[in-house]
């Protein structure tokens, strides 16, 4: 039936695409619903608000659960391969956002799992993709993807440093000052090297303070590393982007160097005189 | 009346412009008055100084209020369209700086609102604009304006991360350790991810400490993002600035785009054959 | 004996090299053993786990000690100059990782020295060197080596600043507020200037708070220095890498620009046609 | 008298210059004496060490005072215009390092002023200037000098922000939670915006925590500014150094290296003889 196909297509455009006014409105409305439902979960977690408005919050929560369930079903029926959506990142998150409410029928205390609805906020980026933010997001994510490997090595090195420095601190500092075991000492090392510095565990002996000072200065110096990496990668990316489009007038192949005078594929002159 | 016009014009030059010695002196004097009046409000907020010099502070405050009122009136009468000043940023701030004193006649406790006089310090930038700081300020503000959009996306991502990580922490950590509700946990996540680390709320359970360590390492790594963005934008800006001056061989006017082939002022070819 | 040589060679390849599947497997297995042995030491340091599984941990620890001893001996017998390994960085670390267990026979309490096994984690980098991380690691280490000198000067300046600022704070702040002697005050200055801020020692008097604010603002501003240095050095390195190999066909001197058409030393044509 | 001149000249070379082995040895020896004398002052400030070794410390302190006095006199007599040294930065610091000991004859408690000897550590940079650190130090100081103006504007903006945000916090948060007056609140704002976060004063009310979160996110974002400025200025400096304008006398094209002897475009000699 043609009309069914059409109906399915239009629904798909409404829910999945955002280049039509209706699709845009749907996305904004959905985001608004997500925001509100998270706000409800948040406020419900505050004790005195729970006592006062608990029943109102429960009703609202169920309204949102039903709305999101309908949305989930619509998402399933308007695409050809529903399993693609179900097992996509956003699909899994949407499922996770629904489960806790329904689990509440069978188990007690699962409602606190509703906080995972916060993950649905990731849809914010879909909205941003519409507007003028697209090129900025693309640029940033490309640069971050390129830096991820280097920053992972950096983080691994930092973690190893905290294991070693935390272990040394465990030997140096007294047990009763909070460094009661190695995992605690490593936790302290992470708190210190990242310059967070809660102060829940802090060295008391002179030797411990000396080691702590070393850890702090290390943390203060190596913070330069991820910044240096990312800045460098952003610069590389911008340079590449700038130098790219230079197609041969003869064979129209691209990818020539800026100083190339002849096409490296067909030998034709690249000079525009 | 010509003399009236003249008088208005000279007053305008004195108050709004700063390229004459008198205008400069007025700006410096005004800034000094703002500084002193803020200092008075500050010192008055210190309990034992209030007890000792409270009446002196009140007199000084009224002197400044009268001076600022006169200044406000002068600003109004010496421009042609007073509403433009009234609804400008500086105009609104000037108004806000005046209201609390007068409100004091009718209501009790409004004097603490005088702290908003601190907003008048924004006039400092007017002074700087005079001197040799102009080009630096222009460069920085241009770069910051260009980065604002990207840094907003970054801040939004950080906020979303804190909502998600704070919610996870609310599930993981015990209520009595300070993570009593989700907003509190999000506050903790912001304190931690920005590496501020007050320590007023800090994880106690091993699982909580593990999540906290993850949050810290995230915060420590992503601080690279705004820095990378700004550094990159500064470099782009400097490159553009450098590549711009490409004067027309025919009319020698500058400011052409890099890909311009004809002078946008006289239409002559810009190609260097 | 040829077969002995051959056996020694193959063992060497297995243990020291990682370009064969067996060598790779050995490295991964070794790393896994190191990880597990460190985990055991860590968990054993937790009081209630020690009470519960203390004897299990002891057995595991001895298994790892024996395994690592065998590994150490194998490393010695399969190379021609064993002393080279013994006195290398990794050799010394491997030795340090073994001693505490054997010392346990003679002395009490040496087992806590087992934490130094964490140093063996440095072998992680050997594994990474295998895969696709090689170029990233090379790039980073080259840049860091180049920056080490500048960052040392920076750290020395920071240390000097903390000595001076800590001393000033010792004079300014009361003894009973934690600034009981100059080394303590310097420790406080390091905690503050690196923006760690435990809060175990914090100023109480107005004058002390003023000095502290100055220290914080200094720390907040100069964090730019190591980042600026590293970013700059990364950019320099990337530029050099790009420009390097281009030697003159006539005088074979190098260092020509990418767009050079003639040798800048002897004037010969650089065109490769 | 020639011999007197000669003696004076050699002494000048020994004390002020460092390009002779003797001058180098003098500088290193002096630095060692400064380090030791500061260490003595530091250790003497520790209560239980003062009780134990107080008299030894006093003797050592006097030995150093006499040594430094002799050095100061020698510095005066071996230059032609002694007042130039007396009123130079290092001269004033040297004087400040001497006065407290002598004041100890007349006044009680001046000995704690000896901590200002730490300022003499600035001489460290003289030593570094000798070796291979010269070019790095020059590069860094040139870049920092160029950035000082921009970073001052940044710091001023941060200070103004802390005044405004601190004042707002004073209105928002309860007096008894540590925000007892505006200067205290500004101190808190500096502690927070620089991400130090002692936790000695921290918000308690929901509204206060919200404002604090805003302050933290501002601090976390604007830390990019000084870094961006410095990195940018380092890059500019490096580019300038490289580009010093050098156009070919034959074809007038630019962009030659500093060490180029022939035009890379037309092969003409670039030598200006």
Description of the molecule:
Chains A, B, C, D: Keywords: Ion channel, Ion transport, Transport. Chains A, B, C, D: This is Voltage-gated potassium channel. The structure is a homotetramer of 273-residue chains. Chain A is mainly alpha-helical and 273 residues long. The first copy, chain A, has helices at 2-16, 21-45, 47-77, 82-86, 89-103, 124-130, 134-172, 182-193, 206-222, 224-243. In chain A, α3 (47-77) crosses α5. The relative contact order of chain A is 0.06. At the C-D interface, α7, α8, α9 and α10 of C face α2, α7, α8 and α10 of D.
Short description:
The structure is a homotetramer of 273-residue chains. With 273 residues, chain A is mainly α.
Largest sheet of chain A: none
- Per DSSP E runs of 2 or more residues, the count of β-strands of chain A stands at 0
Structural class of chain A: mainly alpha
Unreliable stretches of chain A: none
Q: Can you lay out the helices and strands and say which pair or pack?
A:
The structure is a homotetramer of 273-residue chains.
Chain A: H1 2-16, H2 21-45, H3 47-77, H4 82-86, H5 89-103, H6 124-130, H7 134-172, H8 182-193, H9 206-222, H10 224-243
Q: Which key features would you list for this structure?
A:
ion transport (chains A, B, C, D); homotetramer; 0% strand; mainly alpha; 273 residues
């Amino acid at each position: 039936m043609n009309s069914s196909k059409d109906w399915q297509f239009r629904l798909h455009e409404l829910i999945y695409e955002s280049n039509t006014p209706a699709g845009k409105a749907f996305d904004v409305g959905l985001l608004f619903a997500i925001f509100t439902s998270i706000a409800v979960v948040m406020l419900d977690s505050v004790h005195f608000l729970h006592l006062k408005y608990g029943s109102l919050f429960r009703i609202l929560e169920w309204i949102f659960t039903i709305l999101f369930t309908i949305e989930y079903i619509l998402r399933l029926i308007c695409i050809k391969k529903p399993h693609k959506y179900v097992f996509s990142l956003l699909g899994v998150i949407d499922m996770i956002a629904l489960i806790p409410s329904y689990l509440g029928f069978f188990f007690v205390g699962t409602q606190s799992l509703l906080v995972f609805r916060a993950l649905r906020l990731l849809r914010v980026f879909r909205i941003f993709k519409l507007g003028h933010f697209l090129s900025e997001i693309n640029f940033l994510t490309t640069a971050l993807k390129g830096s991820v490997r280097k920053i992972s090595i950096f983080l691994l090195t930092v973690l190893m440093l905290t294991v070693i420095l935390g272990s040394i601190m465990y030997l140096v500092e007294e047990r009763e000052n909070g460094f009661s075991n190695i995992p605690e000492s490593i936790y302290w090392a992470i708190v210190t090297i990242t310059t967070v510095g809660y102060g829940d565990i802090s060295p008391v002996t002179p030797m411990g303070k000396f080691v702590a000072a070393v850890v702090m200065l290390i943390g203060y110096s190596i913070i330069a590393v991820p910044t240096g990496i990312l800045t460098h990668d952003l610069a590389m990316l911008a340079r590449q982007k700038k130098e790219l489009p230079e197609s041969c007038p003869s064979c129209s192949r691209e990818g020539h160097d800026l100083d190339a005078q002849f096409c490296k594929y067909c030998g034709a002159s690249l000079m525009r005189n």
